[in-house]
Please model this.
Amino acid sequence: MNVYCRTVLRVLLASTLTGLLPDTAAAQTTHRIQLVAKPGTVQIAPGRTVQNAWLYSGQLPGPAIRVTEGDRVRITLTNQLPEATTIHWHGLPVPLHVDGVPGVSQGPIGIGQDYTYEFTADRPGTYWYHPHYDLQIDRGLVAPLIVYPKDKTADPKYDREFLVVLDDWLPGAPVAGRDPVYSDYLINGKTSLGQAPMVVRKGEVVRLRFLNMSGATNYVVTVDGHPMRVTHADGQPVVPVTTRAIPIGAGERYDVYVTANNPGKWSIAAAALRNRTRTLVRAILAYASATGPNPSPSYVPTWLRSAALLSYSQLASAKPIGPISGNPDRVHNLALQWQGMMRYVWTINGQVFPNAAPLDVRKGESVRFNASNFTMVHHPMHLHGHFFKVLGSGGGTTAPLVKDTVLVPPGRMMTPGRLDTEFVADNPGNWAYHCHMIYHMGAGMMRLVRYVGTDADRDLLEDGVDFAPSRGYPVGWTDPGAGGYRPGSTVRIELQWPAGETAAWYVGPPLPAPASLGALGEVWINPWAFLGSTRAGRNSRASLALGLPNDSSLSGLKVGLQAVGSHRSLAPGHRLSTLVMLTVR
Ligand SMILES: [Cu+2]
Model:
């Protein structure tokens, strides 16, 4: 037994030392944020109260999280909804295990459970957060996440800023399998009738952050009487461009600066991208000195109706993440299609997620996504975990526009709409790529981007089949300051994993063949030591005791504790695995 242990433990030692250390954070500000997702009541206009909205901490939109580049953010979500949920941090590159896609990067957070997300906000910009579960975005669970640059001079100077959160509102619960019919359109949680003016003074430079958190609406926005200087797209700086009308797809964000040099009360207006003749919702830009009535909610500014639309072809990155490769390592041609007529089905290359092949990539590759839109509507396609470089942008091949969500234009006559993007496969794992019109996503328009040939967390599972490739799963750790444990001593291992699920724990390497664990799936059982199994409580956390064998021949070894399993909540073919290392003195 000892000989066997030594041999296999040395194998583990050689293959598993990296990727398991706790994140180090020196002199870092940590924000501890409590969120509750829960049904509630919200007033969207004077005299218009909505019952049974689903809200983050009782607010619509949810609480804006505002942090500074480099800050640590620790958010505990308590789920008091009548169904499971998750949170995705849209646009902010976070580690895979906090990306919030159920069955891909985490298990669903069950009813009554808590879950803690923790990441470093290391990229300034305008982002947002929302569930990645069913159609919950359209019940009200949306909120801004703003990361300010550490260097206060990184962005052009402004005197005042406002968020302009666009949202579409259903009269009842969302229904899958058809286009939604909205009763209202909101800015910052209110219809046009509920808007509090955004008050500015003459001479000020005003920064507006437009965020489209809608479930299914792509808009055009304008600020009447004030040309907009676009400074950021999806939070990433661009070479400033002046425009009067911006198309903004579901999930997209634009930061613009306007100079307050035209006193009065003005409409910040949004129309549907496919019908610019009607104002769906408007906010009010009001000079402190202005008197007179607010612009009418039904007023349609000329620019909203007919100004030239901002185009990606005008936008160059002011902080490029690399050139467009003349010769990408891998090309995925993606046909966006409607297979409707009889059924509400939206596909990529005819396949309906989750019954769809992953889009394979290898670490280090430059990957081209050539999207062809064979439908009559725009699709805002969003990639998790990476930034796109947009082909055909104003930055050409040297400073291409950087985005995380791109509007792929509709086809015309027999010609599909086309938008090509490229990214560097530098973030191993399994990541979602999908249309951000959530009814399209729910009806099939989604794929997994799967890294093959790598094992980022060195847990002996290739990333392509690993549930949490960048960091073992469930997340497990021991006291890193202990300096090792003596044979015969007891080690406390802290764990976090999907609430309500059972986890089984074994010490040592995996066996070649899995054993069945019934409802849990299958597990690779090691003969050396069965540690036990436990069920996560309300906090999705547990503290397990591992009794090390009282065997001095273990001294000097690194011991790997590994759990490997599959589960019904995971994407087909994916496995849970984690590996916790500790030193035996
Ligand atoms: Cu779509």
About this structure: The longest strand covers residues 30-45. The radius of gyration is 25 Å. The helical segments are 2-15, 302-306, 438-442.
